[in-house]
Amino acid sequence: MRTIRQPAVAGRFYPGRAHELQASVDGLLADARRQTTPLPECPKALIVPHAGYIYSGPSAARGYALLDPFAASIRRLVLLGPAHHVWFAGLALPDDDAFATPLGEVSIERTVADRLSALPGVIHSDDAHAPEHSLEVQLPFLQRVLDEFTLVPLVVGDAGAELVASVLEEAWGGPETLLLISSDLSHYLSYDQARSTDADTIARILALAWPLPDRSACGARGINGLLLAARDHNLVPTLVDARNSGDTAGDPSRVVGYASVSFSTHPGTTSGGDHDD
Asked: For the whole model, what pTM was predicted?
């Protein structure tokens, strides 16, 4: 019997009705496309934020807009996001056959998922996936940017960089496979404090300097694994966008930081936005 992971945050983190969600995502992407310089090649990996769309949607859209010229070639998404609700050791795959959003269903790439299941530290846990927003909020963007694709979704619990990197390596694939690390940056600092803290974190990412401090990013464990894998594959990071919720819809006295970063074999020239210092 086919099982579907139903949306947990539709109507809260993003619009719950299909036509409203499509209009929201398309509007964010249209704004991003006006600001985005195309990359010379398809990114192999992206770091993208995962808050409510009114907060982090503009930054996430800047990352996803880079995929436009390569949409027809990307067929598999390996998506890692941090656990916010259920804590466990390792990384968790779902047993579900697909993930649903108001825009439709995305099938799980079972062949790759089964291969990852054989790795030490990779478990199955629908409980970890059911309430988790860090993966879910990425799907509507992907559904509007890409053609048909399958998904390998992993919630990252207590996992070291080496374990995450081994999972990414096993799922690496070729040009049909894109790696996505879902992560926000600093949490609940003042606007100026967040800009300083996030600038340091972004500098570390651009230098492939792992490990990031845990408190620098809620998805630091996933980012650390990507930085290790990027070193091994000679990937070059490019800052696409950096801002915080004080720039979008939040209280400037208590903000959350966001960034989109692409990784490819050649450096890009995309702008880092208004707050790339």
From this structure: 0.95
Conformational region of residue 20, where left means phi above 0, alpha means psi within -120 to 50, and beta covers everything else? alpha
Q: Where do the domains of the chain lie?
A: 4-275
Does residue 224 surpass a pLDDT of 70?
A: yes
Q: What is the CATH code for 4-275?
A: 3.40.830.10
pLDDT of residue 1: 84
What does the pLDDT average to over 101-111? 98
| CB burial readout 44-64, b (16+ within 10 A) else e | bbbbbbbbbbebbbbbbbbbb
Q: Which two tokens stand for residue 90?
A: 């390792």
Question: How many Å separate Cα 207 from the centre of its chain?
Answer: 19
Classified as helix, coil or strand, 204 is helix
DSSP string, 80-122: EEE-SS---BSEEE-S-SEEEETTEEEEB-HHHHHHHHTSTTE
From CA 70, how far away is CA 97, in angstroms rounded? 26
Residue with tokens 């050649």: 266
Q: Which residues are 105's β-sheet partners?
A: 100
Q: Report helix, strand or coil for 138.
A: coil
pLDDT of residue 269: 60
Any residues with CB less than 8 A from the CB of 62 and at least 6 apart, and which? 32, 35, 36, 240, 241, 260, 270, 273
Distance CA 133, CA 122 (A): 20
Distance CA 273, CA 277 (A): 10
Nearest to 52 by CA among 262, 273, 258: 258
Give Cα 177 to chain centroid, integer Å: 14
For residue range 227-245, what is the model confidence (pLDDT) as tens digits?
999 999 999 999 999 999 9
| DSSP assignments along 206-228, one per residue | HTT-PPPPGGG-TTHHHHHHHHH
Tell me if residue 79 falls in helix, strand or coil.
strand
